[in-house]
Amino acid sequence: MTPWPPKTLSPQLISAIRRVRRLIPEAAAVEVSAHDYDHATKPAIAWDDPVAKQGLVTALVNEAQRLITVLADLSLGDEQADAVGLLALVAGQDVESGDTPGTWRIAQRMAPDRVISTVDPEARHAHKSPSQRRDGYKAHVGVEPETGLITDARLTPANAPDGSIGVGLVHHEERPVEVLGDSAYGSGPTRAALAAGGHRGVIKPIPLRPAVPGGFSKDDFDIDFETNAVTCPAGHTVAFGPTLTARFCVHCASCPLRPRCTRPKEGKVLVLNAYEPELTAARAQAATPEFLLTYRSLRPMAERAISWLVAKGNRRVPYRGVARNDQWIRTRAAAINLRSLVRRGLTTTEAGAWRPARATGASPGVSRREPHHSGSAHPRATGSHTLICRRFGSSLPGLATTILRLDRGYVDGLFNTVLEGLFSHS
Asked: Quick check: 252 and 267 in contact, CB under 8 A?
């Protein structure tokens, strides 16, 4: 991986050092020379000069370390301690030792869970694809795909795993549901967790990539977990152990199928997954007409619900940090639901409970539901994936009861404000 640009690292270090000096008088008293931290100016160096860039990185990192050392024995308040901790993290996550003692350079790797902003330290990088990077947060939203009603919503840093969050969106279900989703939710652990909860997965499988373009894929090998053996397309059988690695090397030298199977000089090495049976079954399921019909018919409403959620600039979150933005996404989801329910006709029961006046779009005895996850970032947005659920054996009024619990406590209060005009701004 290419090194992170010094133009990104130096502002982070400068910002962190400036904050520490502003919050802690003892830090402000430390003599500094790498940069004028009292003025919001950029470092005056030749950015196309590698020596100048490394010199700036070295000076900033050494200055940060000197401040941390001076403040190590002080009794600090929570805000002060957080500022020093952030400075230590930023000063160490992107650099490595230089060629001579006391020098530093940009590391030739990306730090795990890298802090990308000293202003919003909980924001993270995400990759929608190898070439598309997003910074910020990710919204995970459950949507009922026949009506577009949102049934659950959560917000996480952009690098949070999709599968485990998606499973959490259906964790509260009292009855089994049919879960539909794209390949972001196609991992073995996600499928196993859904099955353990009694849910039925209709999830697009992660595509296989043959070692040789147009050649054999893992599906062309006969994998037997009862005997811990694998048979290749040429009929050679080898055993695999706890490492789940099957080595066909001794059979590859004279094998006529080798050009279609592998390229390495030592021969074919097949690495298995502990959830191989679930993944194999998922790929077989995805090839059936029933899967394609269900997946293609239900996904459009998922995308429509997400478009409602992010409309009018709401792909960008309004706050810093997970907690406030999570509260915001739940409130917005509740407002969108209320708008949808009012348009369908909303009334109350004799007990004072809210319910739709009529059920539309749902088959008798069945309502469909969809956890969807869309990206939202501060100030940029991540990509989006879809996770859809279909509930068995519940009616739309029953689903509405679930919807109205979405905000965990203040939907009733929202009724008054939303019905008075919030719909026109959502």
From this structure: yes
